[in-house]
Design a protein that fits this description.
The protein is α+β, with helices and mostly antiparallel strands and 272 residues long. It is built from 3 helices and 14 strands. The protein has helices spanning 2-19, 55-63, 127-140; strands spanning 41-44, 67-72, 97-106, 112-120, 148-150, 155-156, 160-164, 172-178, 181-194, 200-203, 216-218, 223-239, 242-246, 251-262. The strands form 3 sheets. Strands 6, 8, 9, 10, 12, 13 and 14 form a 7-stranded mixed sheet that branches. A 4-stranded antiparallel sheet has the order 1-2-3-4, with no helix packed on it. A 3-stranded antiparallel sheet has the order 5-7-11, with no helix packed on it. The chain is rod-shaped, with a radius of gyration of 32 Å. The N and C termini lie far apart (134 Å).
Length: 272
């Protein structure tokens, strides 16, 4: 019995000595770090690394749409062995997040260590996750579409009517925190005016009142018309300084204005 114990101790000591040599590692026991399945996140696509990572590595990780990634305990590896160069508790992660290590690879290639990052219970920030939330954020913050005409009443055929969407021609800009990342969002609009008489105008101009006549229409016949305007928004976002990335889905707003077009008649007035 004593011989068996001594043999086991000798085997364990030899494994420890081998693991200390450069280039060697041993498979870790499952209870060393006490991880459960929820401590590891896996996925495919762009991964947002922290600003402390190498700039080139950050750009490549975020733009690699077909890369596989794994984020887990700082001392774990995708190969099922302990990470000998493990450095934990160095990021001072804020409350509600934990330190994790990221790994990435192309296809079935070699896994590469991407360093440490702070991860909340929602998982690591990815370009897809941030893009999905950016879409919701820019929908909530879009300026209202409130079209109007000039003149609003007393419109007559053969004279131009000016139109205003009530919005601005420039981009709508928003800076928010999404999925634990700093996001800069820019949404750009275009407008399509359907004037109700078979004519329409598509433009990057929001419209305005006099003297801006870039969005105007002249009715040739009297009658009641409904003018419809559609604002089409497309957006891009930057996450932790990386980007721009397109927001996958655009947004359209629609509103109408009811107009009564009177008949214009020429009248001869005798000067006195």
């Amino acid at each position: 019995m004593r011989a068996i114990v001594m043999a086991v101790l000798a085997c364990a000591l030899s494994l420890l000595l081998v693991s200390a040599l450069p280039g060697y590692s041993i498979a870790r026991a499952v209870d060393i770090h006490g991880n459960d399945a929820q401590d590891t996140y896996t996925g495919v696509g762009g991964l947002v690394l922290p600003a402390t990572a190498d700039p080139q590595a950050r750009r490549e990780a975020a733009s690699c749409a077909d890369c596989a990634w794994q984020v887990g305990d700082a001392c774990d590896t995708p190969y099922g062995v302990a990470f000998l160069r493990c450095q934990s508790t160095v990021l001072h992660c804020p409350s509600g997040s934990a330190e994790r290590r990221a790994w990435m690879r192309h296809g079935n290639g070699q896994w590469y260590d991407q360093g440490l990052l702070c991860v909340t219970s929602d998982g690591p920030p990815t370009v897809t996750t941030v893009g999905r939330r950016a879409h919701g954020a820019f929908v909530q913050h879009l300026p209202s579409l409130t079209p109007s005409s000039q003149p609003a009443q007393g419109i007559v055929a053969q004279l131009p009517v000016l139109f205003d969407s009530g919005q601005s021609s420039g981009p709508s800009v928003l800076d928010v925190t999404l999925a634990g990342a700093s996001v800069h969002l820019e949404a750009r609009p275009t407008w399509t005016w359907i004037f109700g008489d078979g004519s329409s105008q598509s433009t990057g101009v929001a419209g305005a009142h006099w003297p801006d006549v870039r969005v105007a229409h002249t009715y040739r016949q009297p009658g009641d018309v409904t003018v419809r305007v559609v604002t089409h928004w497309t957006a891009s976002f930057w996450v932790n300084g990386l980007g721009p990335f397109p927001v996958a889905e655009g947004v359209a707003q629609e509103a109408t204005v009811a107009l009564r077009v009177g008949e214009g008649r020429a009248a001869i007035i005798q000067a006195r």
